[in-house]
Amino acid sequence: MAEAERQVVVEARGLVREFDEGRVKALRGVDFTIRQGEFVAVVGPSGCGKSTLLQLLGALDAPTRGEVLFKGRSLSTLADPSAFRARSLGFVFQSFHLLPTLTALENVQVPMFEVPSTSRDRRRRAAELLEAFGLGDRMDHLPVKLSGGERQRVAIARSLVNGPELLLADEPTGNLDSESSARVLELMRHIHEERHMTLVVVTHDPNVARQAYRTLGMLDGRIIADTGRQPEGTP
Amino acid sequence: MIFLAVVGKNLLHRPTRSLLTLSGIAIGISAVVALSSIAWGFQRSWERADSARGADLILMKVTTRDPMGAPFDATLRDEVMRLPKVTQTAGLLSDLVSIEDSAPVLVFGWERDGFLWRHLKLVEGRWPKDDEENAVVIGSVASSIMNKTLGSKIHIEAEDFTICGVFESDAIIENGCLVMALPQLQRVLDKPGKITYLYLKVAPDITPAEVDGLRKTIKEKFLGFRALTSGEVARNNAAIQLAKAMSWATSLLALFVGAVGVMNTVLMSVFERTHEIGILLAIGWRRSRIVKMILYEATVLSFLGGILGIALGFVSVRLVEVLPWMKGKIEGVWSLELFAIAGGVALALGLLGGLYPAYRASRLHPNEALRYE
Q: What is the 3-state secondary structure of chain B?
């Protein structure tokens, strides 16, 4: 399908985010669109506004000015941002953010409480994902008993369990060694290719950025570069 | 996984704190259960005593809240006997009297030829011979507490009496009493010709409508008097009402402490789990689900505390009942109603204690909560 024909999933319009009564300007006017199935890396030095941008895309924060549209609808008009996050978004965090009291299998099931599902459905779906991600023998382990790479794979499974349309990842390999990073990256590329998932990844890691087909470069709260390449095998 | 599993794991994550809170609730609920059971037992014992005496109605003065009843002229019984369907009457005078160095004891004066004596079982000795004999019969519990046996002398107010008999009654309260002929007690208390209650028997063929009519007639004919059933007398008894009020006041205090305990525990848990609550909000949990989780945690804690408290209250009262120096003095009443009240109070405690922490948790901003470590 030609790029222009693919649906716009995310559109940022004049995004400004200020803190401390305008003394700190994290975003100074950001505009872009992301279409369905794109794998976008947002790169830039620390403090350039990457994570703030991701939080706005995920309705975890609201812009001071401007708006984010998801499939044409402004996030600021959402009556219940939680429902939007539960059904349409998957989040992957640098620090994994697993619940320490729950096993890997239970952690993956947690978002499913917000969608119609039975206990059996939740267990089956979570187990399928963990099996697919090579964690079939680690399902009943608490996060503290898992390696960093395993935790991040559990977190990715959790982010996908409700079948989201957009996956947002904030430095997904930031706390991982090179071997675990490679495995997580492979997993993310697999998700993008197999599920045609739209991915937005904030990263410092050039290896992560290389996996993406489009890179948004940021500096001082602005997008200074928007470069892309065709996915392998695309005519 | 079910939602309650998340709740349970949160509670089990800090077992010591959960257990301590649960214990606090259990102590509060056990106080409610034990005190209510004893207060109800006190009332039942009075009801049983009045009912065992075989009266259909009890006539009393209602112009006072005196727990022993206000004295009135015993000649009233002649007028009452003339009322239709009244077949027998028996006058009774009672008071709490200091006897030697023991605590005040309930002493009854009964008309010797009245029907009140019939329900008592004489264990040893005999009943007083006549109205002039300085003799008393003593309940089995009073006998053992005061260490007085058949033939012992007992000093009541300014007079010496001989114990001529020991009795037992189905009503636990009577086993801790002394009974003597009515004129003897009237003399000792310096209330000549007075009684505090007049027990009435009515014809066996009387209809409920006729009983109501009789009560109405008594109310109209004898101003300031009322004819009550044994249950009504017990419920109107100021001593019982006082005991119930004290039990509720103590229970409320215990419950207040319990609610503060729950709130403290759950609030601490919310503060400690700010980051986790941030994660839940970030991955799509609605605020209402966070509220539900916190309220469930508080409610599960208080429910379990309630069950433990009911068991603890039950065992405590049973233990007190068999203590040598308490035996026969108190009895607990156990009913589904009491357990349901205790369970309901425990759940209310959890909800009340959990409301504020749940509100606090639901107000967290996911972005800020995620940064909280």
A: CCHHHHHHHHHHHCHHHHHHHHHHHHHHHHHHHHHHHHHHHHHHHHHHHHHHCCCCEEEEECCCCCCCCCCEECCHHHHHHCCCCEEEEEEEEEEEECECCCCCEEEEEECCCCHHHHHCEEEEECCCCCCCCCEEEEEHHHHHHHCCCCCCEEEECCEEEEEEEEEECCCCCHHHCEEEEHHHHHHHCCCCCEECEEEEEECCCCCHHHHHHHHHHHHHHCCCEEEECHHHHHHHCHHHHHHHHHHHHHHHHHHHHHHHHHHHHHHHHHHHCHHHHHHHHHCCCCHHHHHHHHHHHHHHHHHHHHHHHHHHHHHHHHHHHHCCCCCCCCCCCCCHHHHHHHHHHHHHHHHHHHHHHHHHHHCCCHHHHHHCC
